[in-house]
Design brief:
CATH architecture of the largest domain: 3-Layer(aba) Sandwich
Number of domains: 2
Shape: globular
Protein name: GNAT family N-acetyltransferase
EC number: 2.3.-.-
Largest sheet: 11 strands, mixed
Keywords: Acyltransferase, Transferase
Oligomer: single chain
CATH topology of the largest domain: Aminopeptidase
GO molecular function, one term: acyltransferase activity
Pfam families: Acetyltransf_7 (PF13508)
């Protein structure tokens, strides 16, 4: 198969959708595709819909009812794919679903990356994932306070980590200093030569020391060693990491959209 050298906006949206589908069960419901991730009960991406083709409010209601009948839980997230008809988004807005956007960057294969001076540890056992959960908890508290909303529960943080742990074959790494976890990062390398980085986070007490840059260098070089060329990373539109990624050499390529019935984690 020919190596993918760049990613178009449509390919970016497909890559994001495929990443969150990893480890899940896909069910074609006719008017949309359901992705189930039973390992993360309570998370907004436990049951999500994509590739919607509903053309009326009755069809949307029927589709959501089908999801709940199959899974025993309501659908809380809809991902918008390049092929989603505009009328679908209009129906979601009409029914009070909230729009979430992410700015997506692509690092071209031509951008050289220096070796990392910080070695990361592959998250493999419960202890590693407890360390990641501790970092996620801090991230959730910071994110919710920044947004001016109530801090999500510990169980919601746990569900977010369980979801990531089930995203096989994506891998997560932990950065440590004096045996203390100071950062985490995830990466997935697709068979066609594209890769995606997710969940870059550094402990507040370790910020300003270049750890995020070192983690990026480590996973990008890891992805390239696995045969990847373009590397995708996303950032919230109102958050500062987007500036770090731009300085690093990532190029803004697309804005991906999803709709939530309640906030995500």
């Amino acid at each position: 198969m020919m190596q993918v050298m760049e990613l178009t906006a449509d390919e970016v949206a497909d890559l994001v959708e495929q990443f969150w589908s990893l480890g899940g069960e896909s069910v074609d419901l006719g008017l949309g595709r359901l992705v189930r991730s039973p390992a993360a009960p309570g998370h907004p991406l436990e049951n999500f819909l994509t590739s919607l083709r509903v053309g009326s409010e009755d069809q949307l209601v029927s589709l959501l009812a089908d999801v709940e009948a199959i899974t025993g839980a309501p659908c809380r997230r809809v991902l918008i794919s390049p092929r989603t008809p505009p009328a679908v988004e209009a129906l979601l807005v009409l029914n009070d679903w909230s729009l979430d956007t992410q700015l997506q960057f692509v690092l071209p294969a031509s951008v050289a990356i220096e070796p990392a001076t910080l070695m990361l540890e592959l998250a493999q056992d419960d202890e590693d994932w407890r360390a990641i959960e501790g970092l996620f908890r801090i991230d959730h508290i910071e994110e919710d306070r920044r947004a001016g909303r109530a801090v999500r529960s510990v169980s919601e943080t746990c569900a977010a980590v369980l979801l990531r742990r089930g995203l096989t074959p994506a891998t997560y790494f932990v950065a440590r200093h004096d045996s203390r976890a100071v950062g985490c990062i995830g990466v997935w390398t697709r068979s066609d030569g594209a890769a995606m980085i997710e969940d870059v986070f550094v402990h507040p007490e370790a910020r300003g020391e270049g750890i995020a840059t070192q983690m990026l260098r480590f996973v990008i070089r890891t992805a390239r060693e696995r045969g990847s060329r373009p590397v995708l990373i996303g950032a919230e539109a109102d958050d500062t990491p987007k500036h770090l990624y731009a300085r690093f050499g990532f190029r803004p390529t697309a804005v991906t959209r999803s709709y939530s019935a309640s906030r995500a984690g």
